[in-house]
Amino acid sequence: MKSLFKICTISVLTIGSFSIALSALASVNRTSITEILQNPQDGAEVRIYGTVIEQQPGEDEYVIADETGEQIVVEIDDLDLELSPGNKIEVLGIISLETDHEGEAEQEGDPTPEDLEIEATSVNILSE
Question: Alpha-carbon distance 21 to 23, whole Å?
Answer without folding.
Answer: 6
